[in-house]
Write a structure and sequence with these properties.
By secondary structure, the protein is α+β, with helices and mostly antiparallel strands. The chain has one domain (about 35-160). Helix content is about 50%, strand content about 15%. The chain has helices spanning about 1-25, 60-65, 85-90, 105-130, 135, 145-160; strands spanning about 25, 30, 35-40, 45-55, 75, 90-95. The strands form 3 sheets. A two-stranded antiparallel ribbon has the order 1-2. A two-stranded antiparallel ribbon has the order 3-4. Strand 5, helix 3 (about 85-90) and strand 6 form a beta-alpha-beta unit. The longest helix is centred in the C-terminal third of the chain and has 24 residues, at about 105-130. The model has no long low-confidence stretch (mean pLDDT about 85).
């Protein structure tokens, strides 16, 4: 009788594990993913804030749920994953999206190029964080500790800037 009771517990554990895995499965990338979001000071190239989530969550939703208090005078440069940020933060810029079956105008292309030339600083910071292989390759450790490890890497990056 006792053996049957143990097998039921084992089934519960595997079923619970599958539910946890489902939470981290990204249909876009077809694998289990984690997402990190950073807020960077463009002038100092310093990481100001980090936030983490499962890979399933959208960038803009992660931003709204992180409750970042941003001064109204600060200009926000975001990518197309943050459509709708203009409604929350007035002083923000995102690139123009190409309309369906149409092309962007020359002015819109020029504005997109100017914005991307300003945003390249942020992309360089992300690239330098990816030099730590934990972020660019498959994360094989406990998911709960991903935020801690990412914050440590961001702290090391900020420390290297100062020295």
């Amino acid at each position: 009788m006792r053996l049957k009771h143990q097998s039921k517990d084992r089934k519960k554990k595997t079923k619970n594990r599958k539910n946890k895995q489902k939470h981290y499965y990204s249909g876009k990338k077809k694998k289990h993913t984690l997402k990190a979001q950073i807020l960077v000071d463009k002038n100092k190239k310093k990481i100001l804030k980090t936030d983490f989530s499962n890979g399933k969550k959208h960038d803009f939703r992660l931003f709204t749920e992180s409750n970042i208090n941003i001064n109204k005078d600060i200009k926000i440069l975001a990518d197309t994953g943050y459509l709708g940020i203009n409604k929350i933060i007035k002083n923000s810029e995102i690139p123009h999206k190409k309309p369906k079956n149409k092309e962007l105008t020359k002015d819109q292309k020029k504005e997109n190029r100017e914005l991307s030339s300003e945003r390249v600083v942020v992309e360089n910071v992300i690239g330098s964080l990816k030099r730590f292989r934990v972020l660019s390759e498959r994360y094989r450790n406990r998911r709960k500790r991903f935020g801690l490890r990412f914050n440590l890497i961001a702290g090391i990056y900020n420390f290297e800037l100062e020295s």
